[in-house]
Amino acid sequence: MEKYFEHSGKVVEAGNKFEHVMAISLDPRTQYQEGVIRCITNREGDVTVKGYVDRSELYKLKGISLEHFEIVGGLKFKNEKEILNRLIPEGWDFIGFEDPDIWIDPVTDLMHLYFTIPVRPSAKMRDDGERIKIHLGHAVGHDLDSLEMTMPVLMGTVQLSAKEVSIAPLNSKGFRYNLIESRDRQTDTTYSIVKVAIAEDMGKPWKYGEIRFHSKEYNISWIGGHASPGPLLPKSFIDVGEGKLLGIINGREANQKMGDKIKYGIFSIGLFIYDYENGKIDWVSPEPLIRDSEAKIITFASQFVETGEGEGILYAHVDDSFVRAYTLKAESLKSILPAKFVL
Question: For residues 37 and 322, what is the distance between their CA atoms, to the nearest angstrom?
Answer without folding.
Answer: 10
